[in-house]
Write a structure and sequence with these properties.
The chain has one domain (3-149). It is 19% helix and 32% strand. It is built from four helices and nine strands; from the N terminus they run ββααββββββααβ. It has helices spanning 36-39, 42-52, 149-165, 168-171; strands at 3-8, 25-33, 59-61, 69-73, 81-86, 92-98, 118-127, 133-144, 184-185. The longest helix has 17 residues, at 149-165. It is globular, with a radius of gyration of 19 Å. Keywords: DNA-binding, Nucleus.
């Protein structure tokens, strides 16, 4: 339920895709499973979640906090997907809320589990000649884990303690933590 900002940026090279200048594009956000083994059973996992949490959504847009989004939509049948239009030439920030936690999809449900990693994936499309947003422009994603506030604090503390015990050589294998995450382009 915590709102997280995702800044939408126009990352075209100069002169690239001039046909979208002054036009809107559509971005579709999805929360999906990061682990391949869970990707195979994603539909069943999400149906099970829907059955246990009737009326709830996995992903929402915090509309009052968001800037520059047009016509935000959440399809009632796709609990893990939201979409909106935006102008790449204007400042656009989307605040998303994930309403499920990573341990809801683990085998044991009594706490202390690692929790499954999710992925936030953003697919962006331009309009075709029929006015439909079907022409793929770009996809990017990043891995996330979602915990309840106390669980997240505890996880950060234990992760920090584990890192402090490692040798400088072992620490090099891990990426440092940052205030912001740049989503990785999906090809």
């Amino acid at each position: 339920g915590q709102s997280y900002e995702i800044r939408m940026l126009d990352n075209r090279k100069i002169g690239e895709l001039p046909e979208i200048n002054g036009k809107l594009v559509k971005s579709i956000f999805r929360v999906v499973f990061h682990d391949r083994r869970l990707q195979y059973t994603e539909h069943q996992q999400l149906e099970g979640w829907r059955w246990n949490r009737p009326g709830d959504r996995i992903l929402d847009i915090d509309i009052p906090m968001s800037v520059g989004i047009i016509d935000p939509r959440a399809n009632p049948t796709q609990l893990n997907t939201v979409e909106f239009l935006w102008d790449p030439s204007k400042r656009t920030s989307v605040f998303i809320q994930v309403h499920c936690i990573s341990t809801e999809f683990t085998m044991r449900k009594h706490g202390g589990e690692k929790g499954v990693p999710f992925r936030v994936q953003i697919d962006t499309f331009k309009e075709n000649e029929n006015g439909e947003y079907t022409e793929h422009l770009h996809s990017a994603s990043c891995q996330i884990k979602v915990f309840k506030p106390k669980g997240a604090d505890r996880k950060q503390k234990t992760d920090r303690e584990k890192m402090e015990k490692r040798t400088p050589h072992e620490k090099e294998k891990y990426q440092p933590s940052y205030e912001t995450t740049i989503l990785t382009e999906v090809r």
